[in-house]
Amino acid sequence: MGTATMNEQIGFIGLGSLGAPLAQNLLASGRPLTLWNRTASKAEPLVQQGARLARRPSEAITGGGVVFTILWDDSSLEEIVRSEGFLDALGTGGVHVSMTTVMPETARQLAALHQAHGSSYVEAPIFGIPQQAVARQLMICLGGPGPAKERVRPLLEAMGGQRIFDFGEAIGAATATKLVGNFMIISAFAAMQESFEVLKASGIDPKPTLDILTTTLLATPGNQRYAGYLLSGMNPIGMSNIPFKDTGLFTRFADSAHTPVPLAKQLREILTAAKRA
Amino acid sequence: MGTATMNEQIGFIGLGSLGAPLAQNLLASGRPLTLWNRTASKAEPLVQQGARLARRPSEAITGGGVVFTILWDDSSLEEIVRSEGFLDALGTGGVHVSMTTVMPETARQLAALHQAHGSSYVEAPIFGIPQQAVARQLMICLGGPGPAKERVRPLLEAMGGQRIFDFGEAIGAATATKLVGNFMIISAFAAMQESFEVLKASGIDPKPTLDILTTTLLATPGNQRYAGYLLSGMNPIGMSNIPFKDTGLFTRFADSAHTPVPLAKQLREILTAAKRA
Fold first, then answer.
1. Does the pLDDT at position B3 exceed 70?
2. ipTM of the modeled complex
3. pLDDT at A4
4. Is the Cβ pair B264, A191 closer than 8 Å?
């Protein structure tokens, strides 16, 4: 399978808020890039820096090459993979690095589909927000065939992957880690938000409490960012669709394993109400 | 009011799992201690090291002196404070350092009661487990009259208070911080436990996932300890009454502020079920 060479054309599909800075980093590292995005205009800044724009997903792919996808959800990922010519274009020895947050079962099914076509599916879900992509401080969980992972690792580093954790050959654990991690991060946000509201309603200034807790016992980067949002009057849980979507993935994952997750289900209810508000 | 001198007799009431190592640290620092505990036998190891044992709470107190209490809940604290002779024994200039996790409203009422008797109530709830008390790595939130806090600060340090945060003169914020902090810590545990169960039921080894998350995005001392418990087959949420009690205090606090806390209420349900199991 060999290692990636600097002049190998790389496919990149999905220029959303996280995909765009990843593609930008890859391009800045000198890799020739062919892009595809549903809304083609989002590719313009990158095309001006030398990236090529494909007319359809399969045209972003070089036979036996590497293609990255970073999309909204399971169905948008499936749609791309099952789109005309995608798996044929990837061909024998090709590697699809899938960075979308999806169900572990979706990842397993797509991995089997790639294998049947002679290509490799590497799961590489990302923890990070766009600012962290720009700062090249992303955390990536990696699963899939060893040689394929070795081949794409330099590209993941070039993309901003500061910490890359290898979960082995079996598909599912890296993807499940992303679901579990997001659920734990989002539930911490929801608990902080309830705490913040209770303090405020009790006439207690929430700032000293949140400042102290998020620099001591609860000193995670996520909690610190979230406390900052709350203290400046924002409601980030309600602002973004991602907590709602990702908590839904975790509860579906739990359902598929016949495991009760009452806290996660309540969190999903809270996020549903926040979307309606 | 003056500062504490090394030979001033200190009262210490409550030799539970956290109280006992605190009293031990205080005694080891050379402070003369008079103890009271409902179960007197628990005082024996300390008495053998030179502490005095009082027959009733009020006898643990020196007029104008300092007394610490660390008890189970609001009602056990109220019972001690309202026990015969307690406030009279403390007298003018006395300082009661209250370390029990209670409702902010209870703290405010007790503070007013002390003030009416010429003494000071200092709220000093503790974050920490017994092992951290032994290692003198406790975090203490402090509220109350400035001179009283200055007087007792060296004693809190001698007791194992590694980080002491002053929330000002008004009673309530330090106590509320303890409730909010415990709720956030316990909800993180519950989210981790649901994640752990889903991974296991899905045939995914939870160890790499928890190891990675609790050393990166969720790297708090509590999460690390809790992951260790889960991975060695324990269920610490069900093992102790403290998460159940403290989450109940947070939901009562929220009710008193007329603030909906659906995540906390669900957590309380989970802990109720865990107690029954």
1. no
2. 0.96
3. 54
4. yes
Q: Which of residues 27-56 of B touch A (CB under 8 A)?
A: none
- Strand B126-127 relative to strand B138-142, pairing: antiparallel
For the beta carbon of residue B260, count every other beta carbon within 10 angstroms: 14
Q: Does B163 touch chain A (CB under 8 A)?
A: yes
Strand arrangement, sheet containing A33-36? A52-53, A33-36, A10-13, A66-69, A95-98, A120-123
Amino acid at B205: D
Using a CB-CB distance cutoff of 8 angstroms, which residues of chain A are in contact with residue B209?
173, 176-177, 180-181
**Of B42, B178, B200, B265, which one is the catalytic site residue?**
B178
E strand residue ranges, B145-251:
161-166
In angstroms, the CA B68 to CA B78 distance is 14
Whether the pLDDT of residue A1 is over 50: the answer is no
Contact A244, A272 (CB under 8 A): yes
Asked whether residue A144 falls in the same domain as residue A202, the answer is no
Write the pLDDT tens digit of every residue in B63-113: 999 999 999 999 999 999 999 999 999 999 999 999 999 999 999 999 999
Q: Is A178 a catalytic residue?
A: yes
Answer whether A38's CB lies under 8 Å from A50's CB: no
**Domain's final residue, options B150, B170, B190:** B170
Domain range for B198 is 176-276
Query: pTM for the complete prediction?
Result: 0.95
CATH number at residue A132: 3.40.50.720
Looking at the fold, whether B156 and B196 belong to one and the same domain comes out as no
At residue B53, the 3 state secondary structure works out as strand
For residue B14, is pLDDT > 60? yes
Q: Are residues B24 and B154 in the same domain?
A: yes
Give the amino acid at A60.
A
Residue B1 included in any domain: no
Residues 6+ away with beta carbon under 8 Å from A230: A192, A193, A196, A206, A210
Interface touch B195/A187, C-beta < 8 Å: no
Cβ-Cβ contacts under 8 Å for B105 (sequence gap 6 or more): B172, B256
Q: What dihedral do alpha carbons A56, A57, A62, A67 form, nearest 10°?
A: 150
B98 lies in the same domain as B181: no
The C-alpha atoms of residue A153 and residue A248 are separated, in whole angstroms, by 30
Report the CATH number at residue B237: 1.10.1040.10
3-state secondary structure of A215: coil
What average pLDDT score do residues B209-221 get? 97
Q: Does any domain span residue A3?
A: no
Q: Domain for residue B2, yes or no? A: no
Give a yes or no: residue B40 inside a domain: yes
Mark which of B144, B170, B196 sits at the end of a domain.
B170
